[in-house]
């Protein structure tokens, strides 16, 4: 048994949000012709009903629920030991990195942002040595340029900064 | 005061720089536009589709015909029914001639001139997009022969008790086209739509879920013909082309199809709609691309049209010889039905789409 | 037929065709291993190079590559928790936990063995069905496709464990997601919020990478240390091979399931592994098996099925020129370039070409399994690398894999949005597999229900024999899921 400090309220709220989303789907579908609306309406009504019930169930009974990894569902579950305050902090840090990749690409394009991320994550984020950091960054550049640019001919996002400055980098 | 030596060095430098600049300019004038560059062709559908296959044939041969022998790269940007690629070309592609579209963008033109671009998510202003080259896509309509009563000659199609015609989507040009044609010719049919692609349609046709399918020449000549027409289970009815194509016999042109079955010359808004629905594979450039780039690509296609290696490969995949329009006037002429359609036609089309939706939902 | 088989084999084994086969295999290992790249990208890139080759050489190159992407995609699924291609999503469920337990080599041993086995079974099924190809493919119409979708969704029960309500809710959520974009018949855009990106619906690859891979990255970052949670490597390659041999019956069943899903156009790679996985969970009689925690059968089932699917997917392409997927459409293009018209010709006068394709499939599958087994112990060491070094590598792969869907920033928004959803679901023990099923099957069900009703009315429900069989199978699946559910709950509820 793992104590879940009021997290079930968050879960119940999330489920309730799903119910609202399903309901909104049903409302939107009212404007469409019958056939276009049929599936979204049926799914929406069923989804909304189940979500409301589940939300109440989780909110009321969630506190004494079994530990998630004991539910026997065919899925991977979060290790229960990773629920401390420190874990929360680390979760926010890695999420910030993910947002950083997105923002960096928006600003500079993948060909710069992704290698830059690799380098910063290794050197600044994880205190790795210069050799490992530079080696993996070089590897990332070679991989992105060699495989995705030269072989696959992927179309890169041209960073907004360079678009603004009118510089054609690649 | 500067010494004589300094003056001499400075003047030599000035002369050198001037000379270099002149030389560079002269060589730039001589240098073909695409020399040392990469031309990216943006395909609006995913790899493996008819547009992609045709564009890859172009890409393969374009290199040898485009002055300066640039690298040609194909990029697929599928999504939004072709709108994603067109929006990207209009909004984000570099306007220096290194990016062009290789697309079946006739649908975008139709959406822009006779549809509702905003509702369809089309943000590119199609009047500003530069048309570089158009190749008409010939569509062919085929029917099963085992109708009740059997289809022995063209006129029998009007006697069929049940005739199921299949399409992709009520508002798509494919569906509108055959509906318009059958309505003009007075052919009664049960409209079934929602199939996912031409492969899906063909399999429904083969298992007799459908009695009628249509598609472009590669679809007909390389897939429908060997498997059903040559085995005597199906027959081509019509094709949409200004020139007669013997390979599609006994099918007749759309004009003759309507005339033979209705006894009248095709005319009126429905026929006008049918003309608007013409389809092309196109090379398109974003607005503002240097004219030199457009001219170079057009010249390459003119030269490609005479290349036996290209023609042989094109014919193998597409089934017919390419009718490339590379002349600005010819392209303009092809765009006349779209540009002159007007608001009346817009309303007519919208009503006709709505009618189709009701028809498909009838059961 | 024997003569054609011999001719086909000679054609593939002759030089330089065999060289092209080896080249294809090498490329296939790469395309399978790198997330976001797949048999499709490989085909699109290789196609132009086959124009100048002879027919046998072209088939050797393309099939060598295509056949084995579903063998090598296991590598990133097991080692990084990132599916190498859409066909190895389910492999993560138990393959990745095995790697965490220090048993990556065992997972590989089992996976490669059944991949090779599944690939060969798929090819044999293809050969066996040559005489009955036409009626087989034509017996499936719109009503059957719809009911297949329903049967697939019934698997949600098996994939939801003790949380059936959550499983059904997740399934419905996925179906709701799948409604995004143009409606199939009317062409009316739904839930698109004015964003053209959404008009053709959610692309599956960013969804899957977000749901399953990002939460693993987050967990690895939070947990720190190495990917393998134990200091010493556990069971090895040969244990995996023995596991595979012990579960040959499961592997065979899943191979047959895979081949059948492959031959039905439109289903294919994205769900074949889930259906096989669901089957493994549902048919499991071993009370000690814990799926989702490193159960070897959870690796065997999807890996056998996704290789067998390749053989099955060739059936409609060869028999009728009906490509069931974009990859098959490119292969069809290759046939046409070499003047080979699918349909009667490939089953009569050019049967040797068909056999060259089948032989390429068999040889590539066997060779790749052996080749990759040779590298297993080296590969398994990846699990002992520090997480801090592994995370940026995984993230570059995950982000680029998603980018290849439509090459718009929207792909990354989907990735991150579904990543957040996947993380919460993982945290609260909501089953995630129903999402992949729902996103793929939703449009299929809606499309073919519409077509069935508009073409046949409702009579197909009781007039078509295959429909009746499919309805019975669905009911049986639901019954077994409910029964298993009740059994599992009884001891816990007291």
Task: Characterize the structure shown.
The complex is a heterotrimer of chains A (170), B (363) and C (494). Chain A is mainly alpha-helical and 170 residues long. Chain A has 6 helices and no strands. Chain A has helices at residues 7-29, 34-61, 85-108, 110-125, 130-151, 160-165. Mean pLDDT of chain A is 84; it is low at 63-73. With 363 residues, chain B is of the alpha/beta class. Chain B folds into 2 domains: 38-137 and 277-342, Bordetella uptake gene, domain 1 (D-Maltodextrin-Binding Protein, domain 2), CATH 3.40.190; 139-276 and 349-360, D-Maltodextrin-Binding Protein, domain 2 (3-Layer(aba) Sandwich). The termini of chain B are far apart. Chain C is mostly helical. Chain C has one domain (2-489). Chain C has 22 helices and 2 strands. In chain C, strand 1 and strand 2 (189-190) form a beta hairpin. The radius of gyration of chain C is 22 Å and the shape is globular.
Q: How many helices of chain B does DSSP assign?
A: 14
Give the H and E element order of chain C.
HHHHHHHHHEEHHHHHHHHHHHHH
How many helical stretches of chain C? 22
Largest beta sheet: strand ordering of chain B: 2-1-3-11-4
Percentage of residues in strands of chain B: 15-25%
Output mean pLDDT of chain B: 88
Form type of chain C: globular
Computed Rg of chain C: 22 Å
Specify the helix fraction band of chain B.
40-55%
Helix-and-strand structural type of chain B: alpha/beta
Question: Approximately what portion of the residues of chain C adopt beta-strand conformation?
Answer: under 5%
Number of strands of chain B: 11
Strand order of the largest sheet of chain C: 1-2
């Amino acid at each position: 048994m793992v104590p879940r400090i009021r997290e079930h309220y968050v879960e119940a709220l999330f489920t309730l949000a799903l119910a609202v989303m399903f309901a909104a789907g049903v409302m939107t579908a009212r404007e469409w012709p019958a056939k276009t609306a049929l599936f979204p309406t049926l799914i929406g009504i069923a989804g909304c009903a189940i979500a409301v019930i589940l939300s109440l169930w989780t909110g009321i009974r969630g506190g004494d629920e079994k530990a998630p990894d004991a539910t026997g569902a065919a899925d991977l579950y979060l290790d229960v030991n990773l629920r401390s305050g420190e874990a929360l902090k680390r979760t926010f840090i890695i999420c910030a990195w993910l947002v950083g990749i997105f923002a960096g690409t928006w600003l500079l394009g993948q060909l710069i942002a992704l290698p830059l991320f690799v380098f910063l994550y290794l050197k600044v984020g994880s205190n790795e040595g210069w050799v490992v950091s530079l080696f993996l960054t070089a590897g990332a550049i070679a991989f992105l340029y060699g495989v995705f640019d030269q072989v696959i001919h992927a179309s890169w996002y041209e960073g907004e900064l360079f678009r603004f400055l009118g510089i054609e980098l690649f | 005061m500067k010494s004589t030596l300094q003056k001499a060095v400075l003047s030599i430098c000035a002369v050198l720089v001037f000379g270099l600049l002149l030389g560079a300019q002269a060589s730039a004038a001589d240098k073909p536009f695409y020399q040392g560059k990469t031309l990216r062709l943006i395909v609006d559908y995913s790899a493996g589709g008819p547009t992609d296959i045709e564009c890859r044939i172009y890409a393969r041969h374009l290199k040898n015909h485009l002055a300066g022998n640039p690298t040609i790269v194909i990029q697929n940007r599928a999504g939004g029914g072709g709108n994603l690629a067109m929006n990207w070309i209009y909004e984000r592609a570099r306007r220096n001639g290194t990016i062009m579209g290789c697309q079946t963008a006739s649908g975008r033109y139709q959406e822009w001139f006779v549809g509702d671009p905003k509702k369809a998510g089309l943000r590119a202003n199609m009047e500003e997009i530069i048309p570089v080259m158009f190749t008409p896509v010939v569509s062919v309509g085929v029917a099963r022969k085992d109708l009740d009563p059997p289809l022995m000659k063209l006129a029998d199609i009007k006697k069929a008790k049940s005739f199921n015609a299949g399409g992709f989507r009520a508002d798509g040009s494919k569906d509108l086209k055959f509906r318009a044609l059958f309505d003009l010719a007075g052919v009664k049919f049960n409209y079934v739509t929602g199939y996912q692609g031409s492969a899906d349609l063909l399999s429904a046709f083969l298992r007799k879920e459908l009695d009628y399918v249509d598609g472009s020449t590669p679809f007909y000549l390389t897939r429908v013909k060997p498997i059903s027409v040559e085995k005597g289970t199906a027959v081509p009815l019509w094709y949409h082309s200004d020139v007669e194509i013997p390979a599609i016999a006994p099918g007749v042109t759309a004009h003759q199809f309507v005339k033979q079955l209705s006894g009248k010359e095709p005319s009126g808004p429905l026929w006008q709609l049918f003309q608007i629905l013409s389809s092309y594979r196109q090379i398109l450039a974003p607005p503002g691309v240097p004219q030199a780039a457009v001219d170079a690509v057009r010249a390459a296609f003119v030269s490609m049209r005479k290349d036996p290696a290209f023609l042989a490969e094109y014919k193998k995949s597409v089934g017919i010889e390419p009718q490339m329009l590379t002349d600005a006037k010819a392209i303009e002429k092809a765009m006349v039905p779209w540009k002159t359609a007007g608001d009346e036609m817009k309303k007519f089309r919208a009503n006709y789409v709505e009618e189709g939706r009701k028809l498909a939902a009838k059961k | 037929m024997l003569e054609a088989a011999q001719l086909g084999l000679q054609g593939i084994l002759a030089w330089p065709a065999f060289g092209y086969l080896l080249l294809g295999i090498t490329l296939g290992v790469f395309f399978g291993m790198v997330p976001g790249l797949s048999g499709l990208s490989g085909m699109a890139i290789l196609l132009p190079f086959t124009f100048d080759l002879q027919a046998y050489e072209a088939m050797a190159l393309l099939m060598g590559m295509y056949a084995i992407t579903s063998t090598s995609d296991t590598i990133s699924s097991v080692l990084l928790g990132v599916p190498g291609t859409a066909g190895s999503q389910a492999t993560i469920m138990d393959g990745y936990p095995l790697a965490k337990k220090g048993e990556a080599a065992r997972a590989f041993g089992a996976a490669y063995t059944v991949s090779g086995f599944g690939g060969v079974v798929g090819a044999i099924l293809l050969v066996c069905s040559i005489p009955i190809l036409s009626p087989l493919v034509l017996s499936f119409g719109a009503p059957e496709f719809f009911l297949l979708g329903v049967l697939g969704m019934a698997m949600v029960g098996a994939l939801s464990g003790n949380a059936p309500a959550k499983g059904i809710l997740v399934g419905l959520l996925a179906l709701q997601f799948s409604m995004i974009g143009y409606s199939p018949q009317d062409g009316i855009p739904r839930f698109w919020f004015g964003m053209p990106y959404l008009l053709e619906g959610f692309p599956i690859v960013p969804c899957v990478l977000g749901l399953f891979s990002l939460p693993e990255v987050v967990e690895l970052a939070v947990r720190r240390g190495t990917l393998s949670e134990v200091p010493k490597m556990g069971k090895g390659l040969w244990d995996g091979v023995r596991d595979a041999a012990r579960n040959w019956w499961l592997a065979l069943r899943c191979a047959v399931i895979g081949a059948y899903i492959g031959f039905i156009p439109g289903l294919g790679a994205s769900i074949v592994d889930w259906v096989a996985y669901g089957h493994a969970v549902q048919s499991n009689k071993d009370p000690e098996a814990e799926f989702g925690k490193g159960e070897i059968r959870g690796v065997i089932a999807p890996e056998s099925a996704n290789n067998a699917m390749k053989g099955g997917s060739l059936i409609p392409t060869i028999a009728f020129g009906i490509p069931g997927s974009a990859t098959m459409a490119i292969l069809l293009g290759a046939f046409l370039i070499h003047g080979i018209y699918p349909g009667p010709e490939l089953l009569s006068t050019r049967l040797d070409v068909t056999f060259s394709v089948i032989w390429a499939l068999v040889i590539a599958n066997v060779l790749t399994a052996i080749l990759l087994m040779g590298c297993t112990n080296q590969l398994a060491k990846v699990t002992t690398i520090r997480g801090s070094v592994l995370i940026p590598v995984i993230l570059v792969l995950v982000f680029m894999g998603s980018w290849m869907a439509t090459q718009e920033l929207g792909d990354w928004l989907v990735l991150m949005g579904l990543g957040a959803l996947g993380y919460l679901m993982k945290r609260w023990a909501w089953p995630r597999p129903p999402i992949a099923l729902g996103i793929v099957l939703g449009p299929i069900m809606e499309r073919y229900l519409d077509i069935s009703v508009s073409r046949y009315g409702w009579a197909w429900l009781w007039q078509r024999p295959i429909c009746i069989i499919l309805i019975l199978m669905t009911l049986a699946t639901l019954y077994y899921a409910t029964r298993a559910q009740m059994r599992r709950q009884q001891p816990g509820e007291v």
